[in-house]
Amino acid sequence: GENVEQHPSTLSVQEGDSAVIKCTYSDSASNYFPWYKQELGKGPQLIIDIRSNVGEKKDQRIAVTLNKTAKHFSLHITETQPEDSAVYFCAASTSGGSYIPTFGRGTSLIVHP
Amino acid sequence: EAGVVQSPRYKIIEKKQPVAFWCNPISGHNTLYWYLQNLGQGPELLIRYENEEAVDDSQLPKDRFSAERLKGVDSTLKIQPAELGDSAVYLCASSLAGQGAPGEQFFGPGTRLTVL
Questions:
Q1: Nearest residue of B to residue A10 by CA position?
Q2: In a mutagenesis test of the B interface, which of A3, A48, A100 is the best target, namely the one with the most B β-carbons within 10 Å?
Q3: A88 lies within 8 A of chain B by CB
């Protein structure tokens, strides 16, 4: 089955800095890669996703890159704000038939004001 | 629009007792998921429903866990009897799956179970 590794487990930055979270996956059949943000006491919320036919996707301060050859993908947050503090999860899945995402272990992002 | 509703939010029970969690998905969503989330980990799928049919339940410990989704809407996840290792957050999510394309998963707030 799929195995998703996520690094770092904790990331501490100053407000305004950039933050980068990296994930690797093992199943070459995976072609859909969502990223989730989970705030304390809440369920994960989708913030951005990318499919394998795209190398990069951007949405305001958030961007995701995908390297299919190396089987890794990354989340980039620019101009971080204190409200970006949360746990971020990457996931990998196939998009056809059964959609069963395999999640990474999460990165706790702390943005200091 | 209301999001995914789960109840109870918190539950504390003694080991060997039964417990049940309830989930009401977003209206119209045909796919429903139950996940287990241990502290410091990502969610792990327990079971997935498409309408009222359980289509992925290989990760559900069937000796003590059961689930149902009557009429393809609300769902209940039950543990009987509960063990200490079952302490975790149980998340419900729903989506509107398209033709071969994953719909965005919407998660509920979860039920935090503590087994003493």
A1: B40
A2: A100
A3: no
| Cα angle value B31/B36/B37 (rounded, 5°) | 120
Counting DSSP H helices and E strands in chain B, the numbers are: 0, 11
- Tokens at B18, concatenated: 């039964």
**Model confidence over A50-104: pLDDT tens digits?**
988 888 999 999 999 999 999 999 999 999 999 999 999 999 987 665 678 899 9
Written in H, E and C, the secondary structure of chain A is: CCCEEEECCEEEEECCCCEEEEEEECCCCCCEEEEEEECCCCCCEEEEEEECCCCEEEECCEEEEEECCCCEEEEEECCCCHHHCEEEEEEEECCCCCCCCEECCCEEEEEEC
Looking at residue B89, what is its pLDDT? 97
